[in-house]
Amino acid sequence: xxxxxxxxxxxxxxxxxxxxxxxxxxxxxxxxxxxxxxxxxxxxxxxxxxxxxxxxxxxxxxxxxxxxxxxxxxxxxxxxxxxxxxxxxxxxxxxxxxxxxxxxxxxxxxxxxxx
Amino acid sequence: xxxxxxxxxxxxxxxxxxxxxxxxxxxxxxxxxxxxxxxxxxxxxxxxxxxxxxxxxxxxxxxxxxxxxxxxxxxxxxxxxxxxxxxxxxxxxxxxxxxxxxxxxxxxxxxxxxxxxxxxxxxxxxxxxxxxxxxxxxxxxxxxxxxxxxxxxx
Lengths: 115, 154
Hints:
Chain A is an alpha+beta fold. Chain A has three helices and four strands; from the N terminus they run βαβαβαβ. The radius of gyration of chain A is 16 Å and the shape is elongated. Chain B is an alpha/beta fold. The longest helix of chain B is centred in the first third of the chain and has 16 residues, at about 20-35. The mean pLDDT of chain B is about 95.
């Protein structure tokens, strides 16, 4: 069981990303409003105001999607659906996806009751 | 990790200089860098630094400021320092006049290095013990050594 974290840089893709999650078998996720470190430093910390020009093209706000995924195949399926959707995760400015092992969990819907 | 210590020459530490405004402080530091490292275009450099100041103040508070800029006339990144006496009254977050000023300048293509050094300077200057040492240093070498010791954790 793993925690799948996806920082989606372009919020416009959120609906399609979540559709891909469902298609891949992820039945639940938590969506957080988030913001990149670069934007915060350049716009909120006066010392770094000179770096605003390096923010051009970067989106100020993004979405972070957290989900607990039971099996490896689901993660592979999510990745294969989302990668082309956001323009290739290896390209800068699209998003970051990673997993973290979970050693304990409580509160999940039992697998046999999942929609 | 990129260091302040190895980029700050004792000759570019100006102790207890008297300045009338931010422009003259920046100009004094830029001139000391130009003299020590033998580069020209100081006027252009000062204009770039002051243009950056127009965006937002580079005063950190607790009597410290780090004016900085990218300037097309530079080939590498330089650091200078000044202790102002009397302190310079400027727009600061805590209304404390500026006593310690560090100047960070470099070419436009080295934004990542510039950002790392700027962050490190800000982190070091947040330390009250280091600020006290810098304020009490009697020589340029002592001033620089305090930074090196703090930077290298000795």
